[in-house]
C-alpha cells in the first residue's frame, strides 16, 4: 500500500472535500484525485463517495480511516521532530466545541500566541461529533461523558444561575420563591423542538413557563440584558454583567445543578504533539474560566 496515497486519503476524508484537502495541504488537485483513485484500485474498494458539498468516506473508507489515522498522525509527528530545527511545535489542530461557549475563545487565543506554528481549525456545534470520522483531535464537551472509547479529562465544574435585568422588576420585587417566576416572562435553553424546558431549583423540578426557547446562551443573555425575561445561564456567561450591575441574580438562595467541562479525545489513538500541547495548556489555564465564573452568591471554596 502506498503510504503517501494513504495519507492523502486521510487528509481528504478529514476535510470532507478534495479541493479543500488539496488547498490546505498544498497538493495539486489532479495529483490528489489520481493518488486516491490508485489506492482504491489497489484495494479494490471505493473509499470516498461524492456529495453535494464535497465527499465523504464510504463504510469501507470509514474503517480504513479509523485504522490509518493514528499511523498517519504518528508519522507526521516523527517528520516534524526530524525536520524542525528548533523546539517550536508546528502542525494542524482540529477542535470542536459548543457554539456559544464564548469565554473559551480567550484560552484558544492565548494558546495560539504561545504556539504560533500550530494552525487551528475549530468546528462549533451542539452536536457530539464522531472524533475519528470527522477528524477531530480534541473536543470540549459539557456534561457527563459515557463513551468508553474516549479519554475525558475533567477541567472544572460550573454553576448555572437565574438572571434578569434590574429593569424587568421596576415597580415590583424580584421573585422570592420559585412560584413567583409565573409573574414574569421566562426564556430557556433547549435543543429539542417541542420539548418542555425544566429547571432544577434546589431539590425541586420546575416546569418553566417559557415564552422563548433557543439553544444559544448568547442570545438568551442578550434578551436578559434588554430586560425581556428571566433566564438561566452558566455563571461564566453572566458574572461580568452581574458584577457591573447590568444583570442581577434571581433566587440566588436556590441553587441550580452544576455542569462539568471536559476535554475529550479518542482512546487507543496516537495523540499528536500539537494536541498534547493544547490539552496541557488548557489544564494549566482553566483558571481563566473559573475567574469568569465568580458571582456574589458563590461560596469562597467554589472556584479555588
From TrEMBL:
Organism taxonomic ancestry: Bacteria, Pseudomonadati, Pseudomonadota, Gammaproteobacteria, Enterobacterales
InterPro entries per record: LysR-type_TF_proteobact-type (IPR058163), LysR_HTH_N (IPR000847), LysR_subst-bd (IPR005119), WH-like_DNA-bd_sf (IPR036388), WH_DNA-bd_sf (IPR036390)
CDD domains for the chain: PBP2_CrgA_like
Alphabetically ordered keywords of this record: DNA-binding, Transcription, Transcription regulation
Pfam families: HTH_1, LysR_substrate
PROSITE patterns: HTH_LYSR
Annotated family: Belongs to the LysR transcriptional regulatory family.
The protein's name in its UniProt record: LysR family transcriptional regulator
Listed GO MF terms: DNA binding; DNA-binding transcription factor activity
PANTHER family the record matches: HTH-TYPE TRANSCRIPTIONAL ACTIVATOR TTDR-RELATED (PTHR30537:SF5), HTH-TYPE TRANSCRIPTIONAL REGULATOR (PTHR30537)
Residue intervals of the HTH lysR-type domain: 1-58
Organism, scientific name: Citrobacter freundii
Superkingdom, natural source: Bacteria
Amino acid at each position: 500500500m502506498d503510504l503517501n496515497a494513504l495519507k492523502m486519503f486521510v487528509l481528504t476524508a478529514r476535510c470532507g472535500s478534495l479541493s479543500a484537502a488539496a488547498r490546505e495541504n498544498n497538493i495539486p488537485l489532479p495529483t490528489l484525485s489520481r493518488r486516491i483513485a490508485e489506492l482504491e484500485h489497489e484495494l479494490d474498494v471505493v473509499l470516498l463517495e461524492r456529495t453535494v458539498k464535497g465527499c465523504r468516506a464510504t463504510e469501507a473508507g470509514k474503517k480504513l480511516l479509523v485504522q490509518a489515522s493514528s499511523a498517519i498522525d504518528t508519522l507526521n509527528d516523527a517528520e516534524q521532530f526530524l525536520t524542525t530545527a528548533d523546539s517550536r511545535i508546528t502542525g494542524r489542530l482540529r477542535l470542536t466545541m459548543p457554539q456559544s461557549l464564548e469565554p473559551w475563545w480567550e484560552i484558544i487565543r492565548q494558546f495560539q500566541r504561545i504556539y504560533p506554528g500550530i494552525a487551528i481549525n475549530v468546528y462549533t456545534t451542539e452536536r457530539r461529533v464522531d472524533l475519528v470520522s470527522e477528524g477531530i483531535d480534541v473536543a470540549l464537551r459539557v456534561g457527563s461523558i459515557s463513551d468508553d472509547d474516549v479519554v475525558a479529562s475533567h477541567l472544572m465544574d460550573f454553576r448555572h444561575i437565574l438572571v434578569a435585568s434590574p429593569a424587568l422588576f421596576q415597580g415590583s420585587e424580584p421573585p422570592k420563591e420559585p412560584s413567583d417566576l409565573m409573574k414574569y416572562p421566562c426564556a430557556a435553553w433547549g435543543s429539542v423542538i417541542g420539548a418542555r424546558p425544566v429547571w432544577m431549583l434546589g431539590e425541586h423540578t420546575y416546569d418553566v413557563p417559557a415564552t422563548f426557547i433557543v439553544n444559544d446562551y448568547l442570545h438568551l443573555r442578550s434578551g436578559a440584558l434588554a430586560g425581556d425575561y428571566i433566564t438561566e445561564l452558566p455563571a461564566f456567561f453572566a458574572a461580568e454583567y452581574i458584577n457591573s450591575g447590568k444583570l442581577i441574580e434571581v433566587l440566588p438562595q436556590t441553587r441550580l445543578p452544576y455542569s462539568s467541562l471536559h476535554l475529550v479525545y479518542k482512546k487507543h489513538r496516537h495523540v499528536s504533539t500539537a494536541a498534547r500541547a493544547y490539552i496541557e495548556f488548557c489544564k494549566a489555564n482553566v483558571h481563566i474560566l473559573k475567574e469568569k465564573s465568580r458571582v456574589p452568591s458563590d461560596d469562597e471554596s467554589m472556584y479555588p
